[in-house]
Amino acid sequence: MKHIPSQARPRIADMLILLAAVAHCTQGMASPPTTTIHFGETLENSIDIAGDSKYFTFSADKGNRLAIQLIHSALGTKQDLLLVGPDSIEMARSSENHMGWKGEIVVRESGLHRLEVRDRSGQTGGFYLTLIGLNRTNPADEGRVLLQPGLTHTTELGPGDFDVLDIEIAAGDQMSVRASRTTSSVPWFAIYTPDGVPLRSEPDGSDSVSAWAFEREPMGAIRLNRPGTFRLVCGIGSVSLERARITLVKHPWPNKADPDGGELEPFTTRTGILDPGDMDAFFFAATAGDEVTLRMTRETGSLNPEIWILDPSGLAIANPSGSIQAQVENLPIQRTGLHAVLVYDGNNALYRPSVDSGTYSLHFSGRVRSPDTTRLHFRHLGDDLILFWLDRQSGALIESADQGIHEAWRPFAVPIEVDGGFRWARFPKHPSGQIFRVKQP
């Protein structure tokens, strides 16, 4: 080992002085002026000097997945996005006005994060900045709502705005989502799992009016095997006020009628109203080997009738359309069970608010055998159990008994609701060792 003369050895006192000086300099370093942005918030700001930067801060927890969107309000301006964590290490950088929509930005350390919007165009101009938590609540989002299956929800999107809509999913659910424009621009939306992982991103550019979320191979409803709160993030990417209408349909499920929808019985004709962007959900029960005929006919307005028929497994088995009438005749049924019938306006022309609503009739007939009306359907939704069955007669009673003592059945006090052709009830999944049954009159 080489000997170092004592006079060359740094003294401890000198080292302490040096460290204190470094710390003093660090504490005295200037910090840029920042604006606080909250999850779910869209802020309006601007680059006022060419080449300048604007800085924003927000608090995030470890494991949060982030999505950030920048929309310009001035033509020709371009900015970079830079995200820095609490440790002052750069987490992400983008020159495409957005980052994180694929769920790739995961917070690795809880604390205050900084976002920089940096001009690279040499021009001044305004912008809108949105921060979204893909696997957490977004309390600053004024449009945040829980989507109710069967109802068409209208979301208003201010300049540069994005809304986060929650979807309650039970294991085994099958769903379809349609978002339609009611103003000048086609809506964009993405659906994320409870972990913030992308499930679907729409539209695919094939429709000038609406965006759909469904399985494409094979065609049909999206089949989900895990429960939890899924999030639908919807935006239009415009700097003007826009509106979109979003319909979530589960199958089979007691979708809420609005007021149109519910069960189709053989040799009946139903009537309904489709407002702009609306979609109505019906269903019918059939047995393998049956044949069915469906006709949707426009009565008033400028609707282009279109029908989407899904079998009990969620697979699409027919998609007729027409300018006045959409029909399918003697459609062979391959699977026994409940089949979904989604009806909507298939008109892809430019939106005309004065005429893009109207009334229709829906006829159902064929060689259909009577279904088993006593079958019960179960879904585990969070900590609760959803139980539903066909609404063919009133007077059903839910009873409970202690496990192992099946003779002592007693009424179980739980409200029985009626929605979309079903009677249903929601009660605790594991209520202290009890078992349940539905007693039909």
Describe the structure.
It is built from one helix and 37 strands. It starts with 11 loop residues before the first helix and ends with a strand. The protein has 441 residues and is mainly beta. The chain has four domains: 34-133, Jelly Rolls (Sandwich); 142-256, Jelly Rolls; 259-370, Jelly Rolls, CATH 2.60.120; 377-439. Helices cover 4% and strands 48% of the residues.
Topology overview:
Elements: H1 12-27, E1 34-36, E2 42-47, E3 53-60, E4 66-72, E5 79-84, E6 90-94, E7 98-99, E8 111-119, E9 125-133, E10 145-146, E11 152-157, E12 162-169, E13 174-181, E14 188-192, E15 198-202, E16 210-213, E17 215-216, E18 219-220, E19 222-223, E20 228-235, E21 242-250, E22 262-263, E23 268-274, E24 279-286, E25 291-298, E26 305-310, E27 316-318, E28 325-332, E29 337-345, E30 358-367, E31 377-381, E32 384-390, E33 397-402, E34 410-411, E35 417-419, E36 422-428, E37 434-439
Parallel strand pairs: 1-3, 10-12, 22-24
Antiparallel strand pairs: 2-9, 3-8, 4-7, 4-9, 5-6, 5-8, 11-21, 12-20, 13-16, 13-19, 13-21, 14-15, 14-20, 17-18, 23-30, 24-29, 25-28, 25-30, 26-27, 26-29, 31-32, 32-36, 33-34, 33-37, 35-36
